[in-house]
Automatic annotation (TrEMBL):
Protein name: Diaminopimelate epimerase
Main location: cytoplasm
EC number: 5.1.1.7
InterPro entries named in the record: DAP_epimerase_AS, DAP_epimerase_DapF
A biological-process GO annotation: lysine biosynthetic process via diaminopimelate
The protein's role, per its UniProt record: Catalyzes the stereoinversion of LL-2,6-diaminopimelate (L,L-DAP) to meso-diaminopimelate (meso-DAP), a precursor of L-lysine and an essential component of the bacterial peptidoglycan.
Catalytic residues, chain numbering: C91, C91 (proton donor), C246 (proton acceptor)
Gene: dapF
GO cellular component: cytosol
GO molecular function, one term: diaminopimelate epimerase activity
Domain of life: Bacteria
Amino acid sequence: MSIPKNVTKAQATGNDFVLYVDEDGQYDPTAREVEDICDRHFGIGADGVIRVTHPQYVRDLSAEQVEALQQEGAEWFMDYRNADGSLAQMCGNGTRATTRFAMDQKLVTLKDGEEFALGTRSGVKRIASLGQVQGLGEHVFRVNMGAWKIGELDQYTVTVNHASGKAQGTFVDMGNPHVVAVIEDAYSSLPVLADLDLTQPPMVDPEIDEGQNVEFVRIDEIDSREDHGEASMRVFERGCGETLSCGTGLCATAIVLRAKTGVDHWNVTVKGGTLRIDVTDNTVLLTGDAQLVADVAMR
């Protein structure tokens, strides 16, 4: 078994993970082991597995990548695997869960104003602990998700599980690929957000070779004078299916909403809770809760 006997279950706005510390690179899991532990009936159940280890023990990183991470101060790396065992470049909610876990394990101590430099396959992410924040949770973290790229608006057509109707989607690169479709407006003929059937992967045309996460978004309220908006979102994650939340997907959503409305600051509600996303030309900040659920001793 390439996963230690003692692991921790955590969740960040409903995106749930199995985490463990691998101090010296002993516990590099196989895809099958990840699938088994993430199984919600025969395993612990999770959207993914996070091995918290040092960059030099991550087998798919080059020596140059390891050196770059270390030079940016990333002593620890979030080695994230999707529930189907595949490697993932990034997970925004996972960075918050990892930071909460790292603090609990005494891997890092964060004082006011300090940031945790966490290595990921899409570079170093810097996370600050904000404590309790009204409307967001008791253990709230702000993640600087770094640079982003957006494609031309509405260049993809999105359909859902053979349902009649379609919506137009926009590509966003958050270190992993997203297509964001704004629905319940004049340009979408898909069912309303609550009625979407996301039991099967949405179809995206033209296809993206590596696959993508797909976000479906409804604008609920805009206050242009305050530069603030409210929206609701559902997400289908590649390698997982529909999840209660997706951090990079929330960021991609706010980026597309900004492009369409000019509003920079968004509160977005997903099935797992509400998060705040702040977008600038150069970066995006993701702020939300993270909780430790249980310590688990596996048989």
